[in-house]
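Quick one: structure for this chain?
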Amino acid sequence: MPQASTAARTRWTNWAGNQSAHPARSVTPGTAEELAKEILRAADQGRTVKAVGSGHSFTSIASAGDGVLVRPHAMTAVREVDRENGTVTVEAGLPLHRLNRLLAAAGLSLTNMGDIEVQTAAGATGTGTHGTGRDSGSLAAQVRGLEIVLADGSVRRCSPTEDARLFEGARLGLGALGVITALTFAVEPAFLLTAHEQPMGFDEVLERLDDLTAVNEHFEFYWFPHTDRCSTKRNNRSQGPAAPLPRFKEWLEDDFLSNTVWEGACRVGRRFPAAVPTIAAVASRAWSERSYTDAAYRVFTSPRTVRFTEMEYAVPREEVGGVLRELKAMVERSDWRISFPVEVRFAPADDVWLSTAHGRDTAYIAVHLYRGTAEQGYFTAVEQLMTAHRGRPHWGKLHTRDAGYLAEAYPRFADFTALRDEVDPERRFGNDYLRRVLGA
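Got it. Here's what it folds into:
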């Protein structure tokens, strides 16, 4: 049986390199029971406890400060595949890229997922990771049960029919209620997706947006600042046969051009900001029209190695066109030099308490800056625009909202904080970020 390990104080840094902490110790429990002992030990020492996955959040949501950092890398097992009920139960530390391939080998698939698959299962659900979909929502919306260790060391299992209130809060719990050790996801028989990627003008995308989001199961697009050009992507289920991209073409376009060449272009733009509009114009024409059919997880996800920081807001679906036109006008009248495209995705309303799509059809607008690029007021102005349109920030991406704002944005916010008061009254799982977004 794996044993919990400890180490001297070390430095933890997230993927983007913009968040770091120096926890008192790091532990890697192999079971929920080992984790419970570590939580009780931390309580005896008056220390907080925070679990960290791949570190792919841009906020300090996973920062342990000077407390105890829990690494879930010894909890990665697939506990059960239940074909009759269409579920799979996996341990919290299993990375999504491994989950996707294990499911594919079993002839199964998640219904929807984001475009990055390096996150752990618990990290992705706990921060509200999502893709784009007309009918299917975030990873948290696909959770059907979970196991969590609470501040008192108890190991609780919950679902819509067992300890339902804890389940409703914990399936997207920000790490504020306890440490999740296992998750049960809804799955379905593996399916193929046909991707159709096509350049399109900014105005044309917005004029056709209602139709594009209605007739396609999964639609998203990228707008390149300093241009009138977008790259659109439509993913729809296919009866086959599979027709994946040739391996060399996939490497050339999705790895070499999208990562290696793009990294070089971003470095040039960071060093010479005046060159950014020219780079944007060239980049916006580099994405040509193409179609391919492949396993769903291979179409949903893409390799992403260029490091950046990101802000993303969820706005009511009906307001996205106006918001994007305002954003474009802001860029055009500013001195900003924005090398990264703006990403726009969609999700249906759901009932997850702290989901950014709770109770309303939603559009996601994400803005990025290449690592080391001066902020120049870009994120600040974008946030002001988004909040003017009732925007909800992604929990794992940069924002400055506090509990006062978020309590107004989420109808079930008070239910979540009341649950937190019950299961973690001493804030064993608290940190500075959670104090800001949930209150003391």
